[in-house]
Design a protein that fits this description.
Layout lengths: L2 H5 L15 H20 L8 H8 L6 H14 L1 H11 L1 H20 L4 H29 L3 H32 L4 H20 L13 H24 L4 H23 L7 H5 L1 H31 L4 H7 L1 H22 L1 H19 L8 H28 L7 H36 L4 H30 L18
């Protein structure tokens, strides 16, 4: 991708350009958008470290533990496309603020939960409001920062938070659980949401409702149920493996419903997700990159936590601090990539290069033994993985939303978020099945418990490395080199 085409393209038709009087407020709006994104992403992991404490406090069974995480992922992922279109139709600022308020209320309910039933209900509500909040936030970023230089910095910050949010969740979860109680892993969202709401109310320019446009109800039903079935199928596979009829039944239903959804979008007059948005090669490559990054980062987060706590014997607080290289690597790389490297290299070079770099780090993690030294055998490879992923995520987010018409900004943003969620769900299910199989085989071969666990974790890192290399090849082929002056992705000329 040529420098000029990435950094000097005109805004897409009908795209909102901030009024001169709001120039100073644009970067304040970035604070609100960034906080909301951090909150949504970290809530996928912040309770991981706190779950044992919550289980003891609320006295629920081991079988219900995964559902505290899955309940959020299911409602969030299943409603993203609908949430994105609602933001387009009702006004992105308005939906953004409603999402923040609702997320805060749901978090307060979860923090005060007297039973597991109330906690699970609160997690579902968090996911529902996150599905409104996430696409509204990304579409606001897309329509607010249209100047090429500002856009690079803004997407660098956003990509850093999107990529590092899971690791930040682990760190924050460990600190809050250690010094307060598990309930503060939910209460902390009230603080994030309150600050983002006040700043957003003041700084974000009001967005217009698209009057006269109807919501594609049938498309919303097919998309929501299809995504819900897919994520449910992979969540079931995490617990019961891929050989159960329930797993394959849910996956089959999900695929059929999503095929029906795609067919309905081709024929509908007011589609939920305009197909040219995702069929454009550069945007499709970006969605694939986000999918791969989501699968890898969720897997790396999970097995690093297991390795640090079970194998190396770290406390929750020590574990949270130990994943700091992951946070810092993603944040630094994301901000440098979109503001410095993307204009020079383009997505066609930067995304595959980032994937190969992460694959090297993942391969290095394979060789961490039971008696590992933290710095050289864990922290350094973790940082290498993070640097590569930061470049991939921020670049793909920027390229995947570049030039989208204002009418479709929410839908395109929802597609990006859905790719990350689906990648994480599929990645975790496949990796958990792989790790379980390798661990059992190692135990049957006579290996000690810890040795068998480490063998399982190593197989997950190998799988991540293979997926990253495959993703690098695919995105290198999909991304196009554009000559200076070429139309930006999302304009009519590029919808083919």
């Amino acid at each position: 991708m040529n420098t000029a085409t990435t950094t000097q393209e005109a805004p897409a038709p009908h795209q909102e350009v901030a009024a001169p009087g709001r120039t100073v407020l644009r970067w304040w709006s970035m604070l609100a958008i960034g906080l909301s994104q951090l909150m949504v992403v970290l809530d996928a992991t912040i309770m991981n470290v706190a779950l044992p404490s919550a289980q003891m406090d609320l006295n629920f069974s081991d079988s219900l533990r995964p559902w505290v995480i899955t309940a959020y992922a299911l409602s969030f992922g299943g409603l993203l496309l609908l949430g994105g279109r609602i933001a387009d139709l009702l006004g992105r600022k308005q939906v953004f603020l409603v999402g923040l308020a609702g997320f805060a209320v749901a978090s307060a309910l979860g923090g005060a939960a007297p039973t597991i039933a109330v906690l699970l209900a609160a997690r579902v509500l968090q996911g529902i409001f996150a599905a409104l909040l996430a696409p509204a936030a990304l579409s606001l970023l897309t329509t607010t920062f249209t100047d090429p230089r500002e856009r690079g910095r803004a997407f660098g910050i956003y990509g850093a938070l999107a990529g590092a949010g899971g690791a930040v969740g682990l760190l924050l979860g460990g600190v809050l659980t250690e010094f307060l109680t598990w309930r503060w892993t939910l209460y902390v969202n009230i603080v994030f949401a309150a600050v983002a709401f006040v700043v957003g109310w003041i700084a974000i320019a009001r967005t217009r409702r698209e009057r006269g446009t109807r919501l594609d109800v049938a498309g919303a039903v097919f998309a929501t149920l299809g995504f819900f079935a897919l994520v449910s199928g992979f969540a079931n596979a995490e617990e019961h493996g891929f050989d159960g009829i329930r797993t394959w039944g849910l996956l089959a239903v999900g695929v059929v419903l999503l095929v029906i959804f795609v067919l309905s979008q081709r024929r509908g007059q007011a589609p939920l997700l305009s197909l040219p948005i995702i069929l454009h090669r550069d945007r499709g490559a970006s969605l694939l990159a986000i999918f791969v990054a989501g699968a890898v980062i969720f897997g790396v987060n999970l097995y690093l936590v297991y390795f640090l706590q079970i194998v190396l014997g770290f406390t929750p607080l020590q574990t949270g601090l130990a994943v700091l290289p992951l946070c810092l690597g993603i944040m630094i790389s994301a901000m440098v990539s979109t503001s410095v490297l993307l204009p020079k290299l383009g997505a066609k070079v930067l995304v595959p290069a980032g994937m190969i770099f992460s694959a090297v780090g993942s391969a290095l993690l394979m060789f961490a033994p039971v008696a590992s030294g933290y710095v050289l055998q864990v922290a350094v490879p973790m940082f290498v993985v993070a640097v590569g992923l930061g470049a991939v995520i921020s670049t793909a987010l920027s390229t995947g939303t570049l030039g989208v018409d204002q009418h479709d900004a929410g839908a395109a943003s929802a597609a990006v978020n859905a790719s990350q969620q689906l990648g994480g769900s599929i990645g975790l299910a496949v990796l958990n099945t792989l790790v379980a199989g390798v661990t059992v085989s190692s135990l049957n071969a006579g290996d000690a418990n810890l040795d068998a666990l480490v063998e399982g974790y190593s197989s997950a890192y190998l799988a991540c490395a293979v997926v990253l290399v495959a993703g690098a090849v695919a995105t290198a082929l999909l991304y196009r080199r554009r000559k200076q002056g070429a139309a930006s992705p999302g304009t009519p000329a590029m919808h083919r």
